[in-house]
Design goal:
heterodimer, A: about 575 residues, mainly alpha, MetI-like fold, 2 domains, B: about 350 residues, Rossmann fold, OB fold (Dihydrolipoamide Acetyltransferase, E2P), six-stranded mixed β-sheet, five-stranded antiparallel β-sheet, 9 helices, about 25% helix
Chain lengths: ~575, ~350
């Protein structure tokens, strides 16, 4: 405090004019601003700048060229991958709507019993990362050893499997089972805003319930649903895990797996950079469209709480809807989760469920024998913890400066914090690779590059949480400290920090949880000593070691569940269930 | 010498002018209110005094020390002031006692001394039984008292209040007006009070500065503001009034359709040339049935009742003097009954008619 006091004494008016005073007036806050800009450059501007630069550069001479683009789009195979990605996104979004809209309607508007049941399905889908869902389902519906197909062939004597998970539809199903919560949350948020009076106004004119729901309710939430569809579409086209695990064996190429192949042999980073542009452009423009949609005026759905809501009595249909919620939960969570748990305790999955097949060996190997898995587990939590800590610290500084309007152009900082939101993780990773992996920095395979990339990837989540927390603190709370004689830092320590406790906690977990399971951003950046669980799972799946994979999967599942539980316990019911931005 | 001096204080936000060249001197121990409609610049002025906003022109000084000018601004924590905020800004993470003791802690008082002073002030503000409660468990009025106690306990050089009562319900508001004045009388702290409620300002203040459009229109005691407003805005903002235009005509004043003899007015008013405007308070007009009932020396004008409404404590009549273009509002006792359409006589009190 004494430093600051002397600073301020200089401001009191008795100081000589000129540069000396000007220099003393340079509050610490301005230095902080410069520091923050520098950090955000490292996190956001530099990688994206390098991505663009590399895509226009001849790798050997460094001269400007369009050759990378010609190569990236010059082969049918590559173009086909682009088309496949779009198809995948569209089909997934459609399936998600089928899964989620009835659930959202049932929870928000009807007298369906046991609504927690639907919430459990949604939460389960969030807890299980898509690559684990896929692995669970490989054990269920793999063409040779999946019990569904074995059972089917045994029952009918058929030679062909009932359902092959290694297929386009398999990919769609897996991603949809993971992404439907987005549409659920968006739709429910929209439905929650519609006053029952809207429906009653139709009913009093003689409209039957189903007609009202179709003609009044649904159109009112359509922008919200569309907003969710866009998010699901973007998630699907940017996802690496599912296409890599299911698509590569089925010889279905999509953008993300193609990008991965450019990083294989022959190594073509500059072509990958050029090839990632559509992903970036589509994301940026669709997010823009989504914002327009959700900001549109005239729809009551977006103008705040729309008065009273009463639950609609839908008679026996409520059981149908409840069954549907259960069915979706079964596909998304219970079935693959259960299968994975069983597999993790099995000597060999193919031998079926019996006492002689039971073993703890998989866990023993993973936890105590294999250095590889031990390292990966430690790395995952370490990197995730550091990234969550760093992102939160940065986000808090920026949120404080922005909400308190401490310096001009603070909104630039906020914009940079939110920018990674429109950059798919896999594209960000390529940018980081381009910027920091080659000499002179040569950070490839170091922990630093992964932690920093994770920080950048999840910065928007941190910033959203931090800014919301800061906005909820009336500036007068701090002014009350200052007017009583405390400096800004006293105010932060005694008032802001204690009031932000929950926010800090939520902000940390909201990054930590996804960061422990992040695959798309990690796959290009990990080196031999910095592998994380998700990458290891991917590698071991390629080798077909499903029992060990299941054991690691269960470890992820248990720890994630624990942290989510901790979040609910300490932060409250809102945790993870707010409408994603 | 005055305690707090504002000289030519201005605040510009780009082109927009929030506060325009304000001069105001506040004496030691004085209670001054800044009164005005929302957006008049009163809160900006208060926050410049507190040091949260730096003026773009002028100086604020306390004693012989310059606190703020366009070049320098002493930060709020070094001004020896305290403030009560519109939201109270009671820190929810601290108990009542911790909230109140915080300022003392910053002043590095010993623990027993802090305890003693906190106890004292909580007793004075009648909050002693709530010392260990958290703010969330308190009612709005109680939070208000905590804010008061927290601000007063440090014995600030100047106490600032930013619309402190606007979040309370009507009864509590009335009670707290007197409470604030009582505490002021007890401690004698120089106080600046911002409000848009003239009732609050009139109850508590020694002087009121009426602000409009970033300027101070008039600074006066509540009595003088009401009875001798110097501008149309002040006349209209403090209490209700009729604003009536008049022109000098042969031997009298023409009030837009009816004439009153010049002899009724003071020489100064009666001899004035050209156009003028009067503020006539509704309660200084009287309705009588016959001209003979008029008080000696007051003019009477035949009129018609146009509207009336009963407000409980009085009648609110709208009366049009015969031939008049503008009708007048008259506040009458409940016993003064006149039907709509009735012909009555309107008695003016020239002493209470203020030329603006």
């Amino acid at each position: 405090m004494t430093d600051q006091a002397s600073d301020y004494a200089a401001e009191a008016g008795q100081q000589p004019d000129g540069w000396l005073r000007r220099f003393r007036n340079l509050e610490p806050i301005n230095l902080l601003w410069i520091l923050l800009i520098a950090i955000l450059c490292v996190l956001v501007i530099w990688p994206i700048g390098f991505l663009l630069k590399v895509s226009f550069e001849d790798p050997s001479t460094g001269a400007f060229t369009l050759q990378n683009y010609v190569e990236a789009y010059g082969r049918w195979r590559y173009l086909e991958a682009l088309i496949n990605s779009c198809l995948l996104g569209l089909c997934t979004a459609a399936l998600c709507v089928v899964f989620a809209v009835p659930m959202a309607w049932a929870v928000s508007r009807t007298n369906m019993p046991a609504k927690w049941f639907a919430w459990a399905s949604v939460l389960g889908a969030f807890i299980l990362p898509p690559y684990l869902t896929s692995i669970g389902w490989i054990l269920i519906a793999g063409p040779n050893s999946g019990w569904l197909n074995e059972g089917w062939q045994w029952l009918t004597g058929s030679e062909t499997p009932l359902f092959n998970i290694y297929s386009f539809f398999g990919m769609v199903l897996m991603i949809a089972l993971n992404a439907f919560p987005f549409i659920f949350l968006f739709t429910k948020a929209g439905l929650d805003m519609i006053s029952t009076e809207m429906e009653e106004a139709a009913a009093i004119l003689g409209s039957p319930t189903w007609y009202t729901s179709l003609k009044i309710t649904l159109p009112l939430v359509w922008p919200s649903i569309l907003g969710g569809i866009i998010i699901v579409f973007l998630e699907s086209i940017a996802l690496f895990g599912v296409p890599a695990i299911l698509g590569i064996p089925a010889r279905i190429n999509v953008v993300t797996t193609q990008l991965f192949q450019f990083f294989g042999y022959p190594f073509r980073m500059e072509v990958a950079a050029a090839y990632s542009m559509p992903l970036l452009l589509i994301t940026v423009s669709l997010i823009w469209v989504q914002r327009l949609l959700l900001n549109r005026k005239g729809f009551v759905t977006q103008t705040g709480k729309g008065g009273e809501r009463r639950e609609l009595d839908i008679g026996a249909w409520k059981w149908v809807l409840l069954a549907w919620c259960g069915f979706v939960g079964l596909l998304a969570m219970y079935l693959p989760g259960y299968t994975m748990v069983v597999a993790s305790f099995s000597e060999a999955w193919g031998k079926g469920l019996n006492a002689s097949n039971l073993t703890l060996q998989n866990y023993y190997d993973v936890l105590f024998v294999s250095k590889l898995t031990q390292e990966a587990i430690v790395n995952s939590f370490l990197f995730a913890g550091l990234a969550a800590f760093g992102a939160l610290g940065l986000a808090l500084c920026v949120a404080y400066i922005v909400t308190r309007n401490l310096i001009p152009f603070a909104s630039v900082l906020a914009f940079l914090c939110m920018a990674p939101f429109v950059i798919p993780g896999i594209v960000l990773a390529i940018g980081f690779y381009a910027a920091y992996a080659p000499p002179p920095l040569g950070l490839y395979g170091t922990a630093a590059i992964i932690v920093v990339a994770f920080m950048a990837r999840f910065l928007p989540i941190s910033y959203g949480t931090a800014a919301a927390g800061m906005r909820s603190i009336n500036p007068e709370m701090e002014e009350a400290v200052r007017v009583l004689g405390g400096g800004r830092f006293t105010a932060i320590r005694h008032v802001v920090a204690p009031l932000l406790k929950k926010t800090l906690f939520a902000g940390f977990l909201l990054v930590f949880i996804p960061a422990t399971r992040e695959l798309s951003a990690a796959i290009f950046l990990v080196g031999p000593n910095t592998r994380v669980m998700s990458v290891l799972i991917f590698d071991m799946t390629e080798e077909g070691r499903f029992e060990a994979v299941a054991a690691i999967g269960c470890i992820i599942l248990v720890t994630t569940t624990f942290f989510v539980w901790l979040g609910f316990k300490l932060v409250g019911r809102d945790f993870m269930m707010r409408t994603p931005r | 010498m005055s305690k707090l001096d504002l000289r030519g204080i201005s605040k510009h936000y780009g082109e927009a002018v929030a506060v325009d060249q304000i001069d105001l001197s506040i004496e030691e121990g004085e209670f001054v209110s800044l009164l005005g409609p929302s957006g008049c610049g009163k809160t900006t002025t208060l926050r410049m005094i507190a040091g949260f906003i730096r003026p773009t022109g002028g100086t604020i000084s306390m004693g012989d020390r310059v606190l703020s000018s366009a070049q320098t601004s002493l930060p709020p924590e070094r001004r020896d002031m305290s403030m009560i905020f519109q939201s109270y800004a009671i820190w929810p993470n601290m108990t009542v006692a911790q909230n109140v003791g915080f300022g003392l802690k910053l002043r590095k008082l010993s623990k027993p001394e802090i305890d003693r002073q906190v106890k004292d002030i909580l007793r004075i503000t009648r909050m002693d039984h709530l010392a260990d409660r958290y703010p969330a468990e308190l009612s709005g009025g109680q939070q208000q008292r905590v804010a008061l106690a927290r601000a007063i306990v440090v014995r600030p050089g100047v106490l600032l209040l930013d619309e402190p009562l606007s979040n309370l319900d009507a009864n509590l508001r009335e009670e707290m007006r007197f409470e604030i004045r009582r505490l002021h009388d007890e401690f004698g702290i120089t106080t600046v009070y911002v409000t848009h409620d003239q009732g609050e300002a009139m109850v508590a203040s020694d002087r009121i500065a009426v602000m409009n459009n970033g300027r101070i229109e008039q600074v006066d005691t509540p009595f003088d503001l009401y009875n001798h407003p110097r501008s149309r805005f002040v006349a209209g903002f403090i209490g209700r009034t009729n604003l009536v235009g008049a022109t000098r005509v042969n031997g009298g004043l023409d009030f837009g359709g009816y004439k009153v003899d010049a002899k009724y007015f003071s020489a100064e008013v009666g001899n004035r040339e050209g156009e003028m405007e009067f503020s006539v308070r509704p309660q200084l007009l009287r309705l009588i049935a016959e001209p003979s009932q008029a008080v000696q020396g007051r003019p009477v004008v035949p009129s018609v009742i146009e509207e009336r409404s009963y407000l409980g404590e009085n009648w609110d009549y709208v009366v049009r003097p015969e031939g008049a273009r503008q009708s007048l509002r008259v506040s009458a006792l409940p016993s003064d009954l006149h039907d709509v359409g009735a012909r009555v006589f309107l008695e003016f009190d020239p002493a209470g008619m203020v030329v603006l």
